[in-house]
């Protein structure tokens, strides 16, 4: 789809850093509806400090100082601004939408970062709805930007996170990554044992 390819090129230009030849970490902070701290799911809502510990280790190993951030949490950008002094060793890149809302991943399920339609354009008895076409396009753009980076930090319990890393691997071969929850799995929708990345000896039976 030429129009989508153009949107991706435009997004890269707005974000900056992609055309400069600088190494970049793709960081996907997945909060929102998957942020369930339960023994059954094994999912934990990891704070940004945990992501930054991984980023600092990558910086020491690979001399990378740029981070592209994609998140469904509207508070992350404010947190970064407030505590910028902690991570001034990195240059941050985020997708800024025309309406001033920070771009967020997985908008199709959460409705974050997507344009809200007037009630007249929504189903009957609805007070408002999300532009699902725009939400889907935004998700594709953000996954493409994550896949265009050189390293990945995120969670493989997220479909978006796994997809971004898989696309990166197809384009660039194996790239270093850190997953804060599950190891990579390829059996989407099928209940099989999945190992926890932070405890390789423990595994849960769950769907990817």
Automatic annotation (TrEMBL):
The keyword Glycosyltransferase applies. Keywords: Glycosyltransferase, Transferase. One of its GO terms (biological process) is protein N-linked glycosylation. PROSITE patterns: GT23 (PS51659). Residues 1-185 form the GT23 domain. It comes from the Eukaryota. GO terms for molecular function: alpha-(1->6)-fucosyltransferase activity. The keyword Glycosyltransferase applies. This is GT23 domain-containing protein. The lineage of its organism: Eukaryota, Viridiplantae, Chlorophyta, Pyramimonadophyceae, Pyramimonadales.
């Amino acid at each position: 789809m030429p129009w989508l390819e153009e949107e991706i090129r435009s997004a890269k230009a707005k974000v900056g850093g992609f055309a400069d030849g600088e190494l970049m970490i793709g960081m996907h902070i997945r909060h929102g509806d998957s942020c369930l701290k339960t023994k059954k799911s094994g999912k934990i809502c990891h704070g940004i400090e945990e992501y930054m510990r991984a980023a600092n280790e990558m910086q020491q190993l690979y001399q990378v100082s740029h981070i592209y951030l994609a998140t469904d949490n509207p508070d992350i950008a404010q947190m970064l601004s407030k505590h910028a002094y902690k991570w001034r060793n990195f240059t941050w890149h985020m997708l800024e939408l025309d309406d001033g809302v920070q771009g967020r991943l997985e908008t199709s399920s959460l409705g974050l970062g997507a344009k809200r339609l007037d009630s007249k354009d929504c189903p009957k008895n609805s007070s408002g709805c999300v532009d699902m076409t725009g939400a889907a396009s935004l998700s594709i753009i953000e996954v493409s930007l994550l896949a265009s980076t050189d390293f990945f930090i995120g969670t493989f319990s997220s479909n978006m996170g796994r997809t971004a890393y898989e696309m990166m691997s197809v384009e660039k071969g194996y790239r270093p990554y850190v997953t804060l929850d599950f190891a990579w799995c390829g059996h989407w929708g099928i209940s099989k044992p999945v190992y926890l990345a932070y405890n390789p000896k423990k595994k849960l039976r769950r769907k990817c």
